[in-house]
Amino acid sequence: MNEVFDGVAGKFTRDIDQAISEGNYVRGNLFIGLATAAIPAGGYVLDYGCGPGRLSMLLAHAGFRILGCDPSEGMLSQARALKSTGLNMEFKVIRESGETLPQNTFDAIVCSSVIEYVPDPDALLQEFRKALVEKGTLIISFANKSSLWRKYWQRNISSHPMGGVSRHHKWSKQEFEVLLNRNGFRLATQPKYFESPWDHRTWGALVRRLPYFGTLGVVSVQVAST
Predict the structure, then answer these.
(1) How far apart are CA 46 and CA 56, in angstroms?
(2) What is d(CA 82, CA 74) in angstroms, rounded to the nearest whole number?
(3) Roughly what angle, to the nearest 10 degrees, separates helices 54-61 and 2-21?
(4) How many CB atoms lie under 10 A from the CB of residue 110?
(5) Which of 13, 138, 161, 214 would bridge 194 by S-S if both were Cys, CB 3.0 to 4.6 A apart?
(6) How far apart are CA 163 and CA 99, in angstroms?
(7) Confidence check: pLDDT of 7 > 90
(8) pLDDT category of residue 206 using cuts at 50, 70 and 90
(9) In this predicted structure, which of 29-43, 54-68, 116-130, 161-175 has the lowest mean pLDDT?
(10) Is there a contact between 12 and 76 (Cβ–Cβ < 8 Å)?
């Protein structure tokens, strides 16, 4: 898996940088909006599966202290090349097979396009819960099973944007909420859906709450009270 992500790191980074420069980085806008609404100012945030670090950078610019981690050295080389003067962020390698996170440490965790690839989503969420402080926040995207665009794309488009990686897991909103609940989280927001050809249309923002378009959904969740 790392070889795949290493191989596409450069193009993946250029595509994100272009979207940011054009003001069209929908994923980043959604994550930052949820983060600033839920995370205390100056909070310590883990960007788990940070890739080339662009989301970490945006979070750091929003005033958060960031630790970005990823198993791909190719992605992290792009992250470490970022201009970080004045930003409170650092990056480290994690093992692809999973790694125990420090407990009761982070005010929030952001996790963008990761959980659909891991062998055991429950185990990952349990690690997240232990790593968060009391009343901590998890902002996480998931592969949206209900997306009509996803179904069309899988049927008609042979190449995957990440260079041949296929997602292991897909969920409807209801299924993903069940997964979260059984691992000690509760929804704080309803999903917003993105990553479809309609993301940048003038009416794209109007359909973000409908599950039929975007191939990904993103939610903010909190550690459930015991």
Answers:
(1) 9
(2) 14
(3) 50
(4) 30
(5) 214
(6) 25
(7) no
(8) confident
(9) 161-175
(10) no
- In the predicted structure, residue 164 carries a pLDDT above the cut 50: no
Entry pTM: 0.92
What tens digit of pLDDT does each residue of 70-124 get? Answer: 999 999 999 999 988 999 999 999 986 556 899 999 999 999 999 999 999 999 9
Q: What are phi and psi of 196, to 5 degrees?
A: -150, 170
Summary count for the chain: helices (H), strands (E): 7, 8
**Alpha helix segments (H runs only) across the chain:** 2-21, 26-38, 54-61, 73-80, 121-131, 148-156, 173-182
How do the domains of the chain map onto residue ranges?
A: 2-223
Q: Can you read off the two tokens belonging to residue 125?
A: 């969420």
Quote the DSSP letter at residue 204. G
Exposure class string for 128-162: b at 16+ Cβ within 10 A, else e: bbebbbeebbbbbbbbbbbbebbeebeeeeeeeeb
CA pair distance 47, 45, nearest whole angstrom:
6
What length does the chain have?
Answer: 226
Who's near 31: CB < 8 A, 6+ residues apart? 55, 58, 59, 110, 112, 139, 218
Nearest to 196 by CA among 140, 159, 144: 144
DSSP-derived 3-state class of residue 120: coil
